Fold Polyisoprenoid diphosphate/phosphate phosphohydrolase PLPP6.
Amino acid sequence: MPSPRSSRERRAGSGGGRLEFLSLVSQRSPGAPDSPSHRKEPGSAAAAPLPEEDCMKLNPSFLGIALSSLLAIDLWASKRLGVCAGEDSAWGSARPLMKVVEVSGHGIPWLLGTFYGLCQSDSSAAREVLLNLLFALLLDLVLVAVVKGLVKRRRPTHNKMDMFVTISVDKYSFPSGHATRAALVCRFVLRHLVLAVPLRVLVVLWALIVSVSRVMLGRHNMTDVLFGLLLGYALYSVVEYCWLSPLSAPALFALWSH
Ligand SMILES: CC(C)=CCC/C(C)=C/COP(=O)(O)O
């Protein structure tokens, strides 16, 4: 009867006459080429882990999928809501009215109107408010131009580029300059003009109508307008933080005192 042999002895005898050595050193250091953890056994279930960057490529992040889905919904919904994008669109007959709304939120009437008011103002309170409104409108123009130039998102394909006075970055649509201005002016006017409640409601309605009209005219996607509203709202806080007063900017106020 054959005597029971140790596994080491059996292994040594299974090589067809060749000896296979199992060094203690390779057993103890897992990085060594002969170590069991380093060797790949054909058909073994324990495969070497993939580098992290390969895993990232194979598994697109949840955020990436959520963003692409949001953009797809945005493009689809904005196209459907662009009911005044052309004369032959579903609400094409309302296009001239929408273009009047567009001019009411344009930068030029607001800049000229504020400048004129500043020249005509006869109280220091009016001068202070109008000078800050002028500063806010200029800051808004610069900020929107910078973001448009950085993001470079094209206007929707169904937009007809027949807008009243544009600058070069206005071929881009993110964010909507009309929406930022509407939110900024709305917050500014509600804070610094003493108005009766119906007029305050009208100011808010005007800002909303200007914003919605951007999508209806086909000028923007919805995300351009939503971001624009947020940006304009936030910009007002910056303006209030940097508020110009006869104390903080005496030279500027000296220019306008008669
Ligand atoms: C030329 C001046 C002083 C302002 C340009 C105003 C303008 C055309 C903004 C674009 O608005 P949207 O981004 O909402 O289309």
